[in-house]
From TrEMBL:
Pfam family of the protein (one): TUDOR
InterPro entries in the cross-refs: Tudor, Tudor_domain_containing
Domain Tudor: 119-181
Protein name: Tudor domain-containing protein
Protein source organism: Leptotrombidium deliense
Length: 246
C-alpha cells in the first residue's frame, strides 16, 4: 500500500521509503511553500534559503524622484549605460556587517551548507565564493553551464549586479540569517545618453568607459538624482562626481 502524500510504502505492517516518489514529493512541498518541512528533511546547521524563497530588492524613497534632493551612491557594476547597478551609501554599514558575518560562517561551516542534488535550481538564493578575491558573497543562481563546463554555474551577485561563473563546489546554501538584508544592487539608467549613429550599439561606448572607471575604486561615492522610469521600467539618474573638487 502506498501513501498518496508522503513517499512511503506500507506492506504487511512494514514501512519503507519510496525513493522513486521522493523528488516529486520534495518539489510539491516547495511549490506549496512548506519550507519548514523541507528543511526538517535535511540536517542543515541552521535554517537556510530554499528554492522559491525570495530576498526583497532594495528601494529608494519615491520622494527623491524629480526632486532637488540627491543621495550618495556607488556604481557597483555596468552592463551598459542603460543598465547600471548602484549601491546606496546609507546601506554600507548594514551590508558590511552582514558580509563579514557571512564570511565568518561560511569559512567555518561551508561543508555543512553543501547543496543537496535535489535542491539545485535556477533562482535559488545562495552563498558563492569568489576565488579571485577569496571572499564569500550573496548570490542567486542564473543558469547551469553545459558540455565541458557542466560542473560550473553562473551566479548573479545580488549586492553588486555582476555575474560570476564558478564551480558548483563554490556555491552553497545561504543561511536565512543573511537573507534579512535586501538585495543591495539597484538597476538604473544614465540620463541623456544617446545611441551612437550608424552603429548597432545601444549606448555610447565612450560613456560606458567613463562610467566603468568609477567601479575601479572601492566605495567611490557619487551624487545621484533620480528621474522617472524610462520605457524599460528603469529609473534614469543623473550622477555627479564631487570628489575632484575636494
Amino acid at each position: 500500500m502506498q501513501n498518496n502524500g508522503i513517499p512511503i510504502i506500507v506492506e504487511d505492517s512494514v514501512v519503507s521509503f519510496d525513493f522513486d516518489r521522493y523528488e516529486t514529493y520534495l518539489w510539491k512541498l516547495l511549490e506549496e511553500k512548506r519550507f519548514g518541512i523541507v528543511r526538517s528533511m535535511y540536517q542543515f546547521p541552521s535554517a537556510v534559503m530554499m528554492p522559491g524563497e525570495v530576498i526583497e530588492n532594495q528601494e529608494f524613497s519615491p520622494r527623491l524622484v524629480n526632486s532637488k534632493l540627491s543621495i550618495d551612491v556607488m556604481i557597483a557594476a555596468v552592463l551598459n549605460t542603460s543598465k547600471v547597478f548602484i549601491f546606496l551609501k546609507s546601506m554600507q554599514h548594514a551590508y558590511v556587517i552582514t558580509w563579514q558575518h557571512l564570511n565568518y560562517e561560511m569559512n567555518r561551516e561551508k561543508e555543512k551548507y553543501t547543496i543537496p542534488v535535489e535542491l539545485w535550481s535556477k533562482g535559488l538564493f545562495c552563498a558563492v565564493y569568489d576565488e579571485t578575491v577569496k571572499r564569500w558573497y550573496r548570490g542567486k543562481i542564473l543558469r547551469f553551464l553545459r558540455g565541458k563546463q557542466k560542473d560550473k554555474v553562473s551566479v548573479y551577485l545580488i549586492d553588486f549586479g555582476a555575474a560570476l561563473t564558478t564551480s558548483r563546489s563554490d556555491v552553497k546554501l545561504l543561511p536565512k540569517e543573511f537573507a534579512d538584508l535586501k538585495q543591495q544592487a539597484i538597476t538604473v539608467a544614465l540620463n541623456g545618453i544617446q545611441q551612437v549613429e550608424n552603429t548597432k550599439e545601444h549606448n555610447s561606448l565612450v560613456a560606458k568607459e567613463v562610467v566603468d572607471e568609477f567601479t575601479a575604486e572601492p566605495y567611490y561615492w557619487l551624487k545621484c538624482w533620480f528621474l522617472p522610469q524610462n520605457d524599460a521600467g528603469v529609473h534614469e539618474v543623473i550622477l555627479k562626481d564631487e570628489n575632484i573638487a575636494k
